[in-house]
Specification:
The chain has two domains: 116 residues, Tyrosine recombinase, N-terminal domain (DNA polymerase, domain 1, Orthogonal Bundle), CATH 1.10.150; 154 residues, hpI Integrase, Chain A, CATH 1.10.443.10. It is 51% helix and 4% strand. It is built from 14 helices and five strands. The strands form two sheets. It has a three-stranded antiparallel beta sheet, with no helix packed on it. Strands 4-5 form a two-stranded antiparallel ribbon. The protein is elongated, with a radius of gyration of 22 Å. The chain starts with 10 loop residues before the first helix and ends with a helix. 34% of the residues are buried.
Length: 338
């Protein structure tokens, strides 16, 4: 599309239109996350005197990326640029920018170390996923599994270890027990009671009463989470996490990475593999996200450490992904009235 056929529009107006268009498809928490990320782009446009998106070019987008890379770690930078790419693609559809400009948003490729250290499921994504699966597959194996991963922050091995008898619906807890065939990572030291809220108990109870496969495992035990073949496997846990966190599963089919639905390997076809999507998240990312979320909500470190069965040192080094800005504001809340 030539510049002569573009229709002038200010950055803040385009963002307003984009968020209004997505509001019917996404949870409000996700909209607010997009708003926050795109506000950084609006601010950059103001600093660079870009008052009409028709002026944007590949070089402009590169300059924005470079300016944000000074303030963000690779994972956060990638998330911000992926959101920007989806926004630019929308702008193409309303004749605000040149055709295919979204392909010039150069999102960084993360090193394996970056992913292991920083990738997590954020609260907005967890909320979107759980709302989606609750609406379309309530109290299913997938719904129950993802609910427990997010609300309890447990390891995959702990999820597999739960038996029906470990669920106490009256006292609203799950008991993690180290047993032959379903060991806990920290063995007997990993045994504990995990409290559940009423809404989590409702999901688990409805699953057990109505949707659980009535099967035993090879040891004759009654697994809590089951398939027709017996106790849920680690591969099923992984595949469920990857499937429900790739965005086309729960956000109306709008790819933030610029992929076409009929060409994307993460969506379908003979080589269907949700894990290839950059937005898909592993079970460990659910655990890291759950821990970080509790810490962000000011739950004491000691409580999180005991609930998640992780030492304070390991928690700080490998799980706590709060930004420095969040930490300083939390400290301010404790200290400002002293």
């Amino acid at each position: 599309m030539s510049d002569s056929t573009l229709e002038p529009i200010a950055p803040e107006e385009a963002v307003r239109l984009y968020l209004r268009d997505r509001r019917t498809e996404l949870a409000e928490e996700t909209i607010e996350s997009y708003r926050y990320k795109l506000t950084r782009f609006i601010e950059w446009c103001e600093q660079e005197d870009v008052d009409n998106l028709n002026e944007l070019s590949g070089r402009s987008l590169l300059e924005f990326k470079q300016s944000r890379s000074e303030a963000l770690n690779p994972v956060s930078l990638k998330g911000q640029l992926d959101t920007l790419r989806a926004f630019i693609r929308f702008c193409e559809s309303i004749d605000a920018v040149e055709t295919d400009l979204h392909n010039k948003v150069l999102s960084p490729t993360l090193k394996q170390g970056d992913r292991e250290r920083d990738v997590l499921v954020d609260p907005e994504t967890a909320t979107d996923v759980l709302q989606h699966v609750s609406r379309f597959d309530y109290a299913s194996l997938h719904h129950t599994l993802l609910t427990l991963l997010w609300r309890c922050g447990v390891r995959s091995g702990t999820i597999r270890a739960f038996d029906v008898e470990d669920y106490d619906r009256e006292n609203q807890w799950l008991r993690a027990v180290h047993r032959p065939g379903t060991p806990l990572k920290n063995k007997r030291k990993g045994e504990r009671l995990i409290s559940l809220s009423s809404d989590v108990c409702r999901v688990v109870s409805d699953y057990v009463d109505h949707r659980r496969e009535e099967v035993r495992d090879d040891a004759g035990r009654n697994p809590l989470l089951t398939t027709q073949f017996g106790r849920i496997s680690k591969s099923t846990i992984r595949e469920t996490c990857y499937r429900y966190t790739h965005p086309c599963e729960h956000n109306g089919g709008h790819c933030p990475h610029g992929e076409e639905m009929d060409e994307c390997q993460a969506v379908g076809g003979d080589d269907y593999a949700p894990s290839v999507c950059p937005s898909s998240r592993s079970p460990h990312a659910w655990r890291r996200g759950a821990i970080t979320h509790l810490l962000t909500e000011d739950v004491p470190v000691e409580v999180v450490s005991d609930r998640m069965n992780v030492s304070r040192d390991v928690l700080t080094a490998h799980y706590d992904r709060r930004s420095e800005e969040v930490k300083v504001e939390q400290r301010r809340g404790y200290l400002e009235e002293l």
